[in-house]
Structures
1.
Amino acid sequence: MGQERTTGTGTQVVHRVGQLLRAVAGREQGSTVAELAAETGLTRPTVHRLLTGLAEEGLVDRTAGTGAWQLGPELYVLGAVAAHRYPIRELAGPSLRRLAEATGESAFLSARRGLETVCLARVEGAFPIRSHVLYEGLRLPLGVASAGLAILAHLPDAEVERVLAATAGARAGWGPLHTPERIRDLLAEVRRDGFAVNPGLIVEGSWGMAAAVFDATGAPVYALSLTGIEPRFTGERRQPLGRALLTEAHRLSRELGHR
C-alpha cells in the first residue's frame, strides 16, 4: 500500500510538472506565479515550489527585471536533441519563408497534440501591420484559429463531434463565437475549399488562414497558416492566399511521406 501511494504521488508530481511547463511555454512574455496558478489550477505555493525545483535543474528561468518565469536553457538543450527525431521545423522552414515572402503576412507551423494545436515556428512577413495573436508555444483547442480548423476538418465526423464536446469549456475561454454550430459551418467551408479561414473569432479584425499537412499515414498532424489584419484576408486576395497555403502544405506532406 505504501509503495502504491508513493507511486501515485510521484505520478501526480510528473503530471503537475508537465502541466506547469506547458503553461510557462504558452506565454511568450513569461508568466508570474499568480498567472501560472490561475492557468493550471494549482495553488500558488505548489507552483512556486515546483518552479524553484525546475529552476535548479535549468528547466525554467526568471527574467531579469520583470521576474516573469520562462522556459530555461536546459529545455533548449533537450529540445535540440529531440529535434533530430522530429525534424518538422527544419522541413517546414522553406515553406514558411516562401509563404511569408510571397504574401507579406506572418507564416506559422502548428502541430496537433491531442485536443490542441501547438504553434512550433513562425516567419514574419514584410507587411508592417501584423496580428500578434499567434506565437511559438501557444496552445489552442482544436477548432480555435485557422490551424485547428484545418486539422479538425480532415478528421472523421464522429471524431469531430468528440473533439467539439471535449473542448467546449476550453473553446469558450477564447471567445463566445466558438460555438459548435459556427465551427461546423467553418469546417464545411474547409472541406469545400481545402483551406481554413478564421474570420476574427479570437480577436476582432485579426484573421487567419491555414492548410493541413499530412504524415505518411494520412493523418492531419500539422498545419501551415498565415495571419494578419482583416482587409488582407478578404475579397479577391483570399483565393491566392489559399492556393499558396495548399501548395506548401502539399509539398510538406510529400516530404513527410504522404502520397
2.
Amino acid sequence: MATKIDAYQCTECGWTTNRWVGRCGECQTWGSVAERGAPKLRSVSVSAPTERAVPIAQVDVHEADRRLTGIGELDRVLGGGLVPGAVVLLAGEPGVGKSTLLLEVASRWARGGQTTLYVTGEESAAQVRLRAGRTRALADQLYLAAETDLGTLLGHVEQVDPSLLVVDSVQTIGTADADGSPGGVSQVREVTAALVRVAKRRGMAVVIVGHVTKEGSIAGPRLLEHLVDVVLAFEGDRHSGFRMVRATKNRFGPSDEVGCFEMGDAGIVEVPDPSGLFTSQASEPIPGTCVTVTMEGTRPMLAEVQALVAAVPNETPPRRVTHGVDGSRVAMILAVLQRKAHFPLSRRDVYVSTVGGARIGDPAADLAMAIAVASATVDANYHKRVIALGEVGLAGDLRRVPGLERRVGEAARLGFELAVVPANNRDPHSRLPDMHGLKVVEVATIAEAIGALGLSRAGRSDPDAR
C-alpha cells in the first residue's frame, strides 16, 4: 500500500518533510518548500546484483591510481592528481577564470596521450576554439562539443570514449526526464547523478563547472556537493590577477590545500611560490609596515600589512578603515594597543590594508597589524627585515599559533633577519633556534614585542591611553 511520506521538499537544498512549512528546516530559506511528485512505497523488491561482493583486500587498488593533470598547483589541491572515476566540482564567481583553467587542464591531459572531451553549454565551439588559440591550449586528442542536452552529451561520451570529461557548466545541461528548466534544482540533481553514474561505470574522470550565488555559495541543491567526490572553490578578485583554488571537500586527499595561479593576457599560469605577490618590493623597511606568515592549508604564505595613523580635529570622530583584514579584529587590536601599550589612538584616524589584494583571516597576523600601527604612530621603522607572528589577547598577551616552525622556516628561506614570535608558554626553557641568519625573538606580551623593535616611544598625552 502506497503512503505519502516526505511529500514536501525544499527547492534550495533538497530537505524533505511530511508536511508543508513556510521555512526550510535545513537551509532556513523562506518559501522554498513545495510539494513533490509521486508517493513512496513501503517496501522495495529485491533484485540480483550484477557483480558479486568481494573481500576488501581483493579489490584491485591500482584501478584508482592517480593521474597527473600537468598543472602542479591543481595536482597539489587534488592530493596528487585525478583519480579515475572521480567527479570534481569546480565552483567560482563569473569571470574568475574557471573555463580558462579547465581548458588548460583538458589540453595538458590530451597532450599526455589521453583522450579528452570538453563539453560547453555556455559558449559555441568556435568561441572556445578562439580562447584555446589565444592560450595555446590546442591538442590533437582534445575533442570539443557544444551541447545542452544530457542525452546528446552521453552520446558524445560513447563515441569519443574519453578518460577525462569536462562539463562547462552543469547549470546549462538539461534532460527531459526531470522537471523544470536547466539550472533548476531537479535538473541539476538529475544531470549530476547521471554524470556520476557514467564516471563510475567507465572509470572516467569528470570535472564539472558550477555557478555560485550572490552570497558566494554553490548554486543548486546542497545534494550536489554530496554527490561529487571533490569540491573545489576558485577564488579571486577581478581587479587582481591572483587566483586561488581551494579544496572544501576531497574524498581522496586533504581538504585544506590551496593552489595559486595568476591570470594574464596569455591565460592562467600557476604560481608555485606566491610569497612575493603579497609583499612590497622596498629594499628597506618603511614606517607603518610589517610582514607576517599565514597558513593556507599546509602552505606558508607571506603577507604584508600596512598602516597609516593621522590626527583628526577634536570635533571630528576618528575613522577606522580596513581593506583585506577583519575590521572588528583591527578595532580590538587598537583597543589593546591603547590600554596595554599606551599608544594614543583615541583621536587618530587609522587605516589598515594589505598588499596585493591579499585577504588575511589568520589570527597569527594580529601581532603584525599591531606592529604596523605602532610603527605608523611613532613614524619610525626598524633596521632589519622583520616578520611578526602571534595572536593578540585582550589582556595584551600573545598566544602561540599553529605551524610556528614552518612559518619561521619560510621567512628564513626568503631572507628575513628577525622574527618576533610568542614565547613558548608550555616550556619556558624551550626556544626556537635561529636559522639561516634569522634571529628569533620570543616575547610574551604585545608591549614586549613593540619594545623589542624600539617602537615604544609613543607619547602619553592622551588621557584615554592610560
